[in-house]
Amino acid sequence: MEVILLQDVAGVGRRGEIKVVKDGYARNYLLPRKLAEEATPGRIQELRQREQAQEARARRRKAEAEALAARMKGMVLPIPVRVGESGRLFGSVTSADVAEALGRMGFAVDRKQLRMEPLKTLGDHTVEAHLYEGVNATITVRVIPQ
Q1: Model pTM score
Q2: Phi, psi (degrees; rounded to nearest 5) at 77
Q3: 5 near 12, Cβ under 8 Å?
């Protein structure tokens, strides 16, 4: 019997795959537990349409990320911070601070997309922004006294 897997099943396959399994295994195990559904021509066509839509969304997101990376290329992001008399920072500049500063400049970047350690000194620092799978942008963060 041909089935479409609704979840990953160990020893059978991954979610969304069409597999041929024994009739009893499908009727007694996979179908009652909602791990799979019978592969009718209509459901196979629906699965293909969902896959195509998902691929189109992924292509669109990647194109948007590439456009954002191109806009961010060579960017210097000044972040003013409070410093003491000796030039030491009060605290540090975190990924949340950098994401907030990018948001003020019109870039929609989440703090989780920024690959960085907290910045604890004044000056220029390089920060990597992981925008999408295989799409990264390098930003220079300039920590300046307030």
Answers
A1: 0.71
A2: -110, 105
A3: yes
